Recover the amino acids of this structure.
């Protein structure tokens, strides 16, 4: 074969470029954003331990493969967090705590001790102890143990209104 047999004119090359650029690309269907709760994440981890494939689980739970990978990668964090907030496993979706996690964990431990001793705690007692722990740990000048903060704290730690 001769070189001139393969010669492409400028018009032909532009035509080929247009065909390549404007060719219809098949796209994957857009899936809805879906964040599984801790209960589902633990279930996924158990199924991964049983040898199920990540892509099969992603399809079943309508999650991205990267989400399944992230769940697998954060296995220890998920198990630790689930044991801390076992009362909220069905509703919690993320692994974040409040801004003052040291203060809140200390306050929750104090609350649990008082409850175990049979002491009934009012909101004002919890709020004043939160201010005490704030001063003791980090002395955050902007922290106010407001009623809104207290309600969110109780929700995070599964403390019901007495």
């Amino acid at each position: 074969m001769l070189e001139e047999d393969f010669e492409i004119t400028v018009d032909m090359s532009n035509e080929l470029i247009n065909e390549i650029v404007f060719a219809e690309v098949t796209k994957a269907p857009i899936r809805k954003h879906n964040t599984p709760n801790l209960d589902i994440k633990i279930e996924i981890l158990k199924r991964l331990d049983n040898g199920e494939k990540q892509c099969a689980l992603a399809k079943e739970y309508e999650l991205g493969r990267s989400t399944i990978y992230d769940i697998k990668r954060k296995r220890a964090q998920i198990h630790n967090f689930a044991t801390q907030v076992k009362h909220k496993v069905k509703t919690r979706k993320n692994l974040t705590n409040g801004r003052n996690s040291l203060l809140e964990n200390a306050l929750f431990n104090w609350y649990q001790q008082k409850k175990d001793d049979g002491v009934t705690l009012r909101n004002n007692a919890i709020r004043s102890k939160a201010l005490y722990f704030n001063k003791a740990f980090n002395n955050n000048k902007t922290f106010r143990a407001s009623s809104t903060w207290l309600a969110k704290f109780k929700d995070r730690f599964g403390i019901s209104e007495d």
Notes: Helices lie at 10-21, 38-49, 54-61, 65-73, 75-84, 101-116, 123-137, 147-157. The chain has eight helices and no strands. The chain has a mean pLDDT of 81. The radius of gyration is 28 Å.
